[in-house]
Every structure is written in C-alpha cells, then in structure tokens.
Amino acid sequence: MPQLVPFFFINQLVFAFAVFVLLIYAFSKYILPRYLRLFAARTFISKL
C-alpha cells in the first residue's frame, strides 16, 4: 500500500535514532570509561 510508505520510513527513522541514542549512552556510561581507565593505568605504569 503506497499510503503506508511514509509511515514505514518514519518508523524506521525513529527506531534507528532510538538505537543510536541508546548506543551512545551505553558507550559513554559503561564501555568508554573502562578503556579510558585502562589507558590511564598503562600510561601511569609506563612512566614509573
């Protein structure tokens, strides 16, 4: 049904945006601080 095509694309856009926001939140809250802490520890140990 061609009438539903715009709603399909808007639905895809909304869900893609929601997944994008959730990924950014998860990376900034959980994943990136772990790697940053690891990198800081390696830098500190190598400077000793």
Automatic annotation (TrEMBL):
Question: Which key words are in the record?
Answer: Ion transport, Membrane, Mitochondrion, Transmembrane, Transmembrane helix, Transport
Where does the UniProt annotation locate this protein?
Mitochondrion membrane
Any GO CC annotation of this UniProt entry: mitochondrial membrane
Q: State the Gene Ontology terms under molecular function.
A: proton-transporting ATP synthase activity, rotational mechanism
Is the keyword Transport in the record? yes
Task: Name the major location.
Answer: mitochondrion
Q: How does it sit in the membrane?
A: Single-pass membrane protein
Pfam families cross-referenced by the UniProt entry = Fun_ATP-synt_8
Q: Does the keyword Ion transport apply?
A: yes
Chain ranges passing through the membrane: 6-27
List the PANTHER family. Answer: ATP SYNTHASE PROTEIN 8
Q: Give the protein name, as stated in the record.
A: ATP synthase protein 8
In its UniProt entry, the species of origin is given as: Corymbia citriodora subsp. variegata
